[in-house]
Each structure stands twice: as C-alpha cells, then as structure tokens.
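Page 37, continued from 36.
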C-alpha cells in the first residue's frame, strides 16, 4: 500500500475547504487532486525526471482534451491521434491546439519551450540540470508563471507547467465537441443545377 504524503494530504484538505467541488461536474475533484499529486512528484524527482514527467503529463492531458473535442469514433481518433497518426506527436498536438483556439500565443510559447527542455534532458546523456546553459535561458523565458517567489529555473518550469495544466483541465471539464458538418442535400443540389442549366440554354438560344 502506498504511503500517504502528509503535506499532500494537508493540501487536499485546504482545497476541499476552499473549492465547492459538489457544484462542479463529476470527476473534477479527482482531476484536481491528480494534478496536485503530479506536482508533488515533480518537486521530489531528479531534474531529468521532473522535465520528462512534466512534459509527458502535459502531452497526455492535451491528447485527452483533443479526444474529447474532435469528432469520430474511438478507432478513427486512434488513427488520427495515435502514435503513427498525423497528431501522434506532442509538437503536432500543440500546433493544432493553437489553430483551433484552445491555446493562446503565450500558451504555445511556453509549452513549446517545455517541449524543448524535455528534448534537452532526453537527448543529452550527460548529467545536466535546469541551470545548464541550454536549459536555463528557456526556463527564464517562460511567461506563464502563476506563483510568486519562483526564482530558480526549476521552479519557473514547474509553475509554467501547472499554469498550462490548469488550462487543459478547464478544457477537459467542459466536454465540448466540435459539431459535425451537416450532410449535403444532393437532390436539392441537382434541382438547382438543372434549373441553372435550363436557364443557360434558354439564354444561349436567344443570343443566336
């Protein structure tokens, strides 16, 4: 049995006292608490583990939001969003999220920076941290810092991650689907074309 984290349990109690979870859709409380647990894990992880876990969780939540928004059966969405699909990468999902209005410019800037930080940690075999010359400037450039006192590169990284995660949680809770395009009315189209051609032929005869 997993040992409970005393600090995390206190944080959960505070949130339960402040947030009226009973007024929100079912599952919101679990989603918020899951995010709190991820945040605690990030603070305890190594630098590399923090970067990889944070970006993986953002990617997972972004995929979850897109699956709730996009139209199609599970099999269809698996082909679109799955590993080999056109939206099978973190980068492609970010670009789509911006194009369909889920992300602002600042969201895109920060999440792309987070993705680049992940790549630096993931592709560099050396022991590196958030103060590495290639990583620190990316952290210091992050815009979505929602907490006071974030002075270190790692704290700025985590703050931006959870600002974006809050946005994704809000989008996930809304459960809005895009509306499918209505089926074309073929017979009406045929009638319109027939009338147009008849009128064209009539005018053609008059012009001779």
């Amino acid at each position: 049995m997993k040992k409970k984290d005393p600090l995390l349990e206190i944080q959960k109690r505070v949130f339960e006292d402040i947030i009226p979870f009973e007024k929100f859709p079912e599952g919101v409380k679990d989603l918020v608490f899951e995010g709190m647990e991820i945040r605690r894990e990030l603070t305890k992880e190594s630098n590399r583990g923090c970067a990889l876990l944070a970006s993986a969780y953002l990617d997972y939540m972004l995929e979850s939001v897109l699956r709730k928004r996009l139209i199609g059966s599970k099999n269809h969405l698996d082909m679109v969003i799955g590993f080999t699909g056109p939206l099978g990468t973190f980068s492609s999902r970010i670009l789509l999220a911006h194009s369909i209005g889920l992300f602002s410019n600042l969201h895109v800037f920060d999440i792309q920076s987070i993705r680049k930080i992940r790549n630096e940690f993931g592709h560099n075999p050396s022991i590196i941290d958030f103060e590495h010359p290639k990583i620190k400037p990316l952290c210091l450039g992050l815009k979505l810092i929602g907490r006071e006192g974030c002075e270190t590169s790692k704290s700025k990284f985590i703050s931006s991650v959870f600002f974006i995660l809050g946005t994704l949680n809000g989008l996930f809770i809304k459960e809005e689907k895009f509306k499918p395009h209505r089926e074309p009315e073929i017979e009406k189209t045929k009638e319109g074309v027939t009338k147009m051609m008849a009128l064209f032929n009539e005018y053609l005869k008059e012009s001779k």
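The mean pLDDT is 88. Flag for discussion at group meeting. The CA atoms of residues 107 and 159 lie 13 Å apart.
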